[in-house]
Write a structure and sequence with these properties.
With 554 residues, this protein is α/β, with parallel strands linked by helices. The chain is built from 23 helices and 15 strands.
Length: 554
């Protein structure tokens, strides 16, 4: 995001107005009142031994990687900064809080659960009392529910944190934290992002080592925060169990996040072009439709690249061999693939148009995608092309279950079309399975690329590389050593020479050497065992992802 665009999101600093607000809260803090120092609090404050049972409840959960950052903040001697736990629903924020509280002295620790009817004035009164009672560790959950939090957040860092309090903030409206950090909490916060849960963490915490399970349900935890979060969502179990729960998650965790944060920030002036949708009460629906549209376009690209192709890749080869062993003809050899693909794409376009009840402009799309990026729900990992100057947009979802579940629901609904009902049931099932196999393959490519990008140091970059004909699924280039590694990513557990034909294409390799330096290794990431074949390294994709180690960017 360039500086001009970011500047628009930050908006006017409103320095004078915040200065006056800060003085008002300073007066409230330092002013002596006639109120006696009692244990009465204005917000939902939990202290002492009452915290023990809740901490015990999370004692059996393993800790996220980011817990070390939280622990370092709590143990440090630096004052004047708050710690922000920022992330979408069900990504472990509240569990992190109680895991941290478990290791702190209970007589110095307090947990505050903000409710919708609370105010910043009442929170300020309680913090003042807690300071007088010499509490040191203060955890404030759901603080973004306070309407004036974004515009008055500096009270926490400039007064209470400066007095020695360690203040940890958490809330489901993570965009509100982002907006506060660009203004009120600028350079006065330690931020811990929880939205992105890499496969290695998902695998370690939940004991799930299957990439397909991560594709289906990845992005949120089934256990952990659901025990303490919104009671309305406690009965959901898995957030991406089906299309209905996925849509509900998008509504509650993403769309309303954006709407609430923008409405509470600078009296709604950050809405920009989205104000018309907001005033019509249709902003949440618009966000949902744009996410669906991105997933529809993703599925269209799968059909265009894979299902339409005469070279159907390793999955098709496996299907043909299986059909031969079973004494039947492969569905892929029976159907008119071109006609099926055209029909699927036609239905997708109709669905997209039918869902657009609100006129959404390109400005709306651009701004919503910016906010989705700030929420870390989507990341653009630009692809590169040999002989092209401009990078190619390549949007990846950080919560794979959200993308896969919507794609799955869409494919199942497509199979109900009258044209497809003409095929026997087993053939319809095979068409559906074939498409979903390709979807999982494409998503596995995205996951590998995203998680590789996340751990690389500053002098390395990972990207998809396009040629005039063909592509490398991933290139990892080292700008210091001027060298690279090239990868193909295959959603199969079998080996076929056709899988690595691009890696052994002399012309393509020479172009890569010219552009990025010597090729140090050629690897196929797949779901089978580690081995070598004709000078090509085959590596198990789950082991590859679990072995990735996060390093600091230079």
């Amino acid at each position: 995001m360039d500086e001009d665009r970011l500047g628009k999101i930050k908006g006017d600093n409103g320095a004078e107005e915040r200065k006056q607000m800060g003085k008002r809260y300073e007066k409230l803090f330092f002013e002596e009142t006639a109120q006696e120092k009692t244990e009465k609090f204005y917000t939902r404050v939990i202290t002492g031994d009452i915290l023990a049972p809740v901490c015990e409840k999370v004692s059996g959960y393993k800790k996220r990687e980011c817990f070390k950052i939280l622990e370092k903040y709590l143990r440090s001697d630096v004052f004047g900064r708050v710690c922000v736990l920022s992330g979408l629903r069900r990504t472990g924020k509240t569990t992190l809080i109680f895991q941290a509280i478990a290791g702190l002295p209970k007589d110095k620790t307090v947990y505050i659960k903000v409710m919708r009817n609370d105010t910043m004035d009442n929170l300020n009164r309680d913090l003042k009392k807690l300071s007088e009672l010499e509490y040191k560790y203060v955890f404030i959950d759901e603080i973004t529910l306070l309407e004036d939090f974004i515009d008055s957040a500096s009270l926490l860092s400039d007064i209470y944190a400066m007095l020695g309090m360690k203040i940890v903030l958490s809330g489901t409206d993570s965009l509100g934290f982002t907006l506060a950090e660009t203004a009120e909490l600028y350079d006065r916060s330690v931020t811990i992002h929880t939205t992105f849960i890499p496969f290695r963490e998902y695998s370690r915490l939940l004991g799930i080592h299957d990439i397909d399970e991560y594709i289906r349900y990845g992005g949120t935890f089934r256990v952990g925060e659901t025990d303490f979060d919104d009671p309305e969502l406690m009965d959901e179990g898995i957030s991406f169990r089906d299309d209905e729960t996925t849509r509900r998650y998008i509504d509650t965790a993403v769309a309303r996040n954006i709407q609430h944060s923008l409405a509470c920030c600078r009296y709604g002036t950050y809405f920009r072009h989205l104000v018309d949708l907001y005033e019509a009460g249709e902003l949440t629906g618009a966000v949902n439709r744009i996410i669906e549209d991105m997933n529809h376009r993703f599925l269209l690209s799968v059909l265009t690249r894979d299902f339409k192709s005469h070279d159907l890749g390793s999955a098709a080869q496996i299907e043909r061999k299986r059909a031969a062993l079973e004494g039947r003809v492969s569905i892929l050899d029976e159907i008119d693939r071109e006609a099926v693909t055209r029909k699927l794409m036609e239905i997708l376009d109709i669905r997209n148009q039918a869902g657009m009840t609100v006129p959404i402009t390109q400005e709306h799309v651009f701004e919503i995608k910016e906010y989705l990026s700030l929420l870390e729900l989507i990341i653009n990992i630009p692809a590169e092309g040999i002989g092209t100057k401009a990078p190619i947009e390549n949007i990846v979802f950080t919560q794979p279950g959200m993308r896969y579940c919507q794609a799955q629901a869409l494919v199942f609904s497509l199979m109900q079309d009258e044209m497809f009902k003409k095929y026997p049931a087993f053939q319809r099932k095979q068409i559906s399975d074939r498409i979903l196999e390709e979807v999982r393959g494409r998503m596995m490519e995205e996951i590998v690329l995203l998680e590789t990008v996340k751990i690389l140091p500053g002098h390395k970059k990972a990207f998809k590389l396009f040629f005039a004909a063909g592509e490398f699924d991933m290139v990892v280039a080292d700008t210091e050593d001027v060298s690279c590694e090239i990868f193909e990513i295959k959603h199969t557990n079998r080996i076929f020479p056709n899988q690595y034909r691009h890696l052994t294409d002399e012309e393509k390799c020479n172009q890569v050497i010219h552009e990025y330096g010597p090729i140090l290794s050629k690897t196929v990431l797949y779901r089978g065992q580690d081995m070598e074949e004709s000078g090509i390294h085959y590596r198990n994709v789950e082991k590859y992802l679990e072995a990735l180690k996060k390093v600091d960017k230079k």
